[in-house]
Amino acid sequence: MFSKACEYGIRAAVYVTLQSLEERRVSFNEIAKEIDSPIAFTAKILQQLTRNNIIHSVKGPTGGFEIEREDMDMVKLSMIVKAIDGDKIYTGCGLGLKECNAQKPCPLHDKFLDIRTDLRNMLESTSLFELATGLEVGLTYLKR
Questions:
Q1: Residue 125: what pLDDT?
Q2: Terminal alpha carbon distance of the chain
């Protein structure tokens, strides 16, 4: 459903949020290791997240990546998906066809509309804080 980059982006943002709750900045090497992502790929993803003001990069010897506490509630998963994958998850064909719309629908078109609506609602209502606090108490897991 999500691209590999988007999956890693969500995991990276959640990890940064979890560490920021403990008042820690984390390096991209640490993030790559914790989310099981190649270092160069992780660097690109973190750059996209930083450029889109989802996480913050602090330079210097005590630098690293962080997210402010007040931003943790404001950043929703939909923002991460848009920053990395754009809006195609809401508009693309469920079968991957180039031309699929209400006038020329694929066999899944109408059924996929409900799935897209539910997905959009979930992504727009789920915050990084919610996911990170689920990890903190052991209700969810970040690694495979």
A1: 96
A2: 17
